[in-house]
Amino acid sequence: MKHWKSPKYRKPSSSRFSHDAVYLLDRPNTIVHFSRVKYLITLILSAFTLVSCSIPNPDLSNVKSIAVANGVGNRLNRVKIGTTVFNNSYEKTEVPGLEAAMNESAVRNLKTRFSNVKSISVATHESSNLFGSSGMLDIERFKKDAVAAAAHQGLDAVWVIYPLSTPAPRGENIYGIEQRCDAFMGMSRESIICVVQGELLDARTGKTISRSIYALGSGLSTTAPWEKKFSSYPAAIQKEIRNNVIQASKKHMATSLNGAGVTTSKVE
Fold first, then answer.
1. pLDDT tens-digit map of 97-120
2. What is the domain partition of the chain in residue ranges?
């Protein structure tokens, strides 16, 4: 696999990281790691790049208490990329308990290092003013609201979780948490993919202390044939997909916190 060559990145002469490639962003103290994880989208093994962007060795000396604010919510995007545009389908649905599971995972992992950790509520349902006509979260407004809510409770920092968009193999960009079906010559497999950023913000200044971006392919969501509507699956398959989505998001959360240098927890 060829390394991504963007004019915004420059390759260092040496690296202390054991990843496939490391590139330095054109801003200080920020490193992007590129390593490979394999997952099945079709019956052919495809390579999916796990992208981690983090600030190494963050200064946490002034952080004693942390809030967790989730901008992902319970939203699950379901995308099928067929052999032609006529075979494509898209559905936005809800996974009850997804937001709560992500928050619980973040709080549990943060408590391995900090004694005072709270989950706070920031209005991120799509009827709120944090969403535009595109249906995507206004990330900057969300972060400002989260910082204000954490400061109001007298906390030192806030770990914000929000969806990102990234280019996808053979189709539309992946946004947030998806159940994605990539069909090839009539054969397909469904995968769960998380493209979510975690960022630790100072509740006093709003400045970034650390962050971590992971695009995580988490294997098959179900072996059942693809249905355009989630409601068309039998109840047992719906439960299977929901459980797999929740488990993928919890794994993502532990990996993201570790990648940001905030925790060193065992990945679930």
1. 999 999 999 999 999 999 899 999
2. 15-259
